[in-house]
Amino acid sequence: MYMQSDSIIIIPTYNEKENIEKIIRAIFSLEKAFHILVIDDGSPDGTADIVKGLINGEFADRLFILEREGKLGLGTAYIMGFKWALKHSYEYIFEMDADFSHDPNDLPRLYSACADEGYDVAIGSRYVSGVNVVNWPIGRVLMSYFASKYVRFVTGFEVHDTTAGFKCYRRRVLETIELDKIRFKGYAFQIEMKYTAYKIGFKLKEVPVIFVNRREGTSKMSGGIFGEAFFGVMRLRLDGWFRKYPKIEK
User: Fold this and answer.
1) CB neighbourhood size of 249 (10 A)
2) pLDDT of 44-57, one tens digit each?
3) 100-120 as b/e: b if 16+ CB within 10 A
4) Whether the predicted pLDDT of 202 surpasses 80
């Protein structure tokens, strides 16, 4: 039976054939009805074919896919997804990874922070209550943890997990942020979106989650991603001083 939903989860994919069907089924098994939009960057492993098989099978009215020609970056994938979600009138728009590092069971908690508690952005935070990361090499944990500390230090931005990619936005946040002016493509995109929402004046809440390193498939992290984030934060700080941010529509 097709279920209406006020919420869409955007999942960017590149070579996630081991995970994509499992994560879709896990989300659709939740009591709260969510829709899913997969944005596939031309995965050579057939990820998109798996999704299209599920769309043509049992999930025709709540699973959607946009296909792109190649690896165009995480940020551009999400912005494409945001525009699609706004066009299709969803009220709550989520970012989530395909690899189970974000637990589908936490989705209702992020939803509740926005829908019930009145926050504009809910952030699934690894660091708001200690360091909640499982199966990561210690070097990776330290790099991520201190990256968030660095962002807070440079920007004065009071979010513990600034690079988190597990989030729920109210529709009005994405309508207000000038999406075509978001400049970063990699993990700095996550910092820029939160910082921009904060500078505009939206209310952000960190919801504690446990982040579990992927069990299947391969990580997409690279040194270039961290370089962009390191120097990008300084540019964001300059923006914070000199840029005119949009006003929240009352």
Assistant:
1) 7
2) 999 999 999 999 99
3) bbbbbebbeebbebbbeeebb
4) yes
- 3-class SS letters over the chain: CCCCCCEEEEEEECCCCCCHHHHHHHHHCCCCCCEEEEEECCCCCCHHHHHHHHHHCCCCCCEEEEECCCCCCHHHHHHHHHHHHHHCCCCEEEECCCCCCCCHHHHHHHHHHHHCCCCCEEEEECCCCCCCEECCCHHHHHHHHHHHHHHHHHHCCCCCCCCCCCEEEEHHHHHHCCHHHCCCCCCHHHHHHHHHHHHHCCCEEEEECCEECCCCCCCCCCHHHHHHHHHHHHHHHHHHHHCCCCCCCC
- Indicate if the pLDDT at residue 127 is higher than 80: no
Q: In this structure, is the dihedral angle defined by the CA atoms of residues 161, 167, 168 and 170, taken in order, positive or negative?
A: positive
